[in-house]
Amino acid sequence: MTSSTPRRPGPIALAALAIWIGLLALISYWMAGESYRWLPVQASNAAPLVDGLFSFETGVGTFVFLGVVSVMGWVMLVHRAEKYDESDAEPIEGNTKLEVIWTAIPFVLVMAIAWYAIQINTELGVLGPMEHIHLRNPQEQQGGYPGGRLPVEQVEVIARQWSWEFRYPGQHVSSTELHLELNRPITFRLVSEDVLHGFFIPAFRLKQDVIPGRAIDFSLTPTRLGRYRLRDSQFSGTWFAANQADVVVETADDHALWLKQAAAAPLQSGLSVAAAEYTEQQTNPRGGWPTVVPAPPPQVNVPGSSTLPHDA
Fold this sequence. Notes:
By secondary structure, this protein is an alpha+beta fold. It has helices at about 10-35, 45-80, 95-125, 140, 250-265, 275-285; strands at about 130-135, 155-160, 165-170, 175, 180, 185-190, 195-200, 205-210, 215-220, 225-230, 245-250, 270, 300. The protein folds into 2 domains: about 15-75 and about 95-125; about 155-300, Immunoglobulin-like (Sandwich).
């Protein structure tokens, strides 16, 4: 029995392979650019960084997917058995060069993604570091600042089952609709009154768990005028999907006017879809699973609206 020496690919085959790899690279580059269109509008200084990482990962993922599918298609078309051939395949020893190649390529891709992700995470930390504060300390429970007052640029975000409340320090203003000034750095102080919630504003690319017993500070800068949507990204009970609020980014003059008008407005019940639906269910029982009684709507100066159109 003689062993046959495998043929080396010729110049034409190598040229065709190079052209095919180049075509896959072009398609991957195009997909990376198209991925920006899949995301909501960019409304914070963190959004371009996060979107850039997502675009890079989309391009790499597209190249890997098309490369694997190409190899599968080549094997099925060129190396398939003849019709009615039911014999066993020829045993082949391992190919050291091939094993090195298919080990090195994934390693390089994974390291590139990890390096890029670390760079983005570092830049996000420079924009506004996230800090966890235990609320067992009385001073920390008041924010850890002199006199228990938050700095002017900070907004306290209170999550509960199932409504959001926003308090603006120094203004004695509270609302169930978040108002922010354009291009002004803002720090959110996130606290929960009951269970785990998720503070998620897709247009800001901000998603942060709100953990009971902790105050979490997170900073960024709104960069686009408009009305956006805040959602609860964590399952916190029956009405967690309805636990939403509008986020309004406005000019400095409009924001100052809004704060002035809000400070003069009397306290009233804030928006709470859960409380309204629960009250309606108690009036007209329809059966169903028992649920946690929603917390009463917070008393705020500005309830806002849940029916206005928003950008994202």
